[in-house]
Amino acid sequence: MNALTTTPKKRRAVVLVNLGTPSAPTPGAVRAYLREFLSDPRVVDLHPVARWVLLNLVILPRRPGRVAPLYQSIWMEDGSPLLVHGRALERQVQALLPDAEVVLAMRYGAPSLTEALERIDGLRLRDVTVVPLFPHEASATTGSVREAVYTHYRGHPRVPSVRVVPPFFDDAGYLEALAENVRGQLPGDVQHVLFSYHGLPERQVRREDGTGQCLAATSCCAALTEKNAHCYRAQCFATTRAIAAKLGLGDVSTSFQSRLGRDPWIGPATDAALEALVERGVTRVAVVTPGFVADCLETLEELGKAAVERFHQRGGQLTVVRCLNDDPTFARVIARLTDAGARRHA
User: Fold this and answer.
1) Domain residues for 306?
2) What angle separates helix 232-247 from helix 172-183, to the nearest 10 degrees?
3) Neighbours of 298 (CB within 10 A)
4) How many domains are there within the chain?
5) Are both 141 and 239 inside the same structural domain?
6) Both 37 and 127 in a single domain?
7) Is 155 contained in some domain?
8) What is the pLDDT at residue 7?
9) Could you give the dihedral angle defined by the CA atoms of residues 320, 323, 327 and 329, in that order, rounded to the nearest 10 degrees?
10) What are the residue ranges in the chain where pLDDT is below 70?
11) Same-domain check for residues 32 and 156
């Protein structure tokens, strides 16, 4: 075999980590997934007893049966959309990084992050780069991934060099890929573009911010400063401003979706924002979801089906822009971010 056809030796590992998905669109599979997901104290940051009561006496007895049909409505031939798109991205990044073993993992469910790291351990690779596929920083997402990775190697007999890629909400390449993706899908007659991000409980955002000024005023996220640089909500607003500027959009707003429970969550809420738009006569709206790199239940069903139907019933036309998924430009961004020497704004 000549040098041109020899498979390059794997010198490092790259782990792409997304949130997770049930293994099947059934109540049993949804229940197993929710049990693992909502048992994480970084996701449901309540006292352990309160978390157990909420999960086992309120959520698990009811929610799996309600959610399973929603998953059924978006399920693809090859499985969950989040997993299908994740596998496609994994293949794209692998092709770009022939010297690396590229592995897709889910923080909850399968393929699990623990299994991915154990596979890498077996290959005895000395350099591991973990890419949380969450553009914005939050304890419940990027924080949970970091903790799981560091916990895996705690007390491990052989610890490789481990790097976790930081949030990339302001990375120039990511913003350009996102802008191009949106540009190609916006209807020509759109009146307003709503940027919708996953919500978080207010207490989590305040705790992570640590300035004492978080959410004290409606304008607290109007600019990204040294004080709020690590604030999830402020980072989301910064992404909206950046994409709106790149695309020359005038009428835009930011909102947060997917609330769970009765505690206050950051706002404005996406469903309320859409209701307010149609009430003031704005009937041709597009929704962009920068915080979701792959289409999933929240983008395909919560927005793409339920929100579209409600908006249509009010006489409006709602377009939900597809996520980046396995966009080749986005794959190149991810590949570049795995380079320890890559500059964030290159």
Assistant:
1) 186-320
2) 60
3) 21
4) 2
5) no
6) yes
7) yes
8) 59
9) 100
10) 1-8, 209-213, 340-346
11) yes
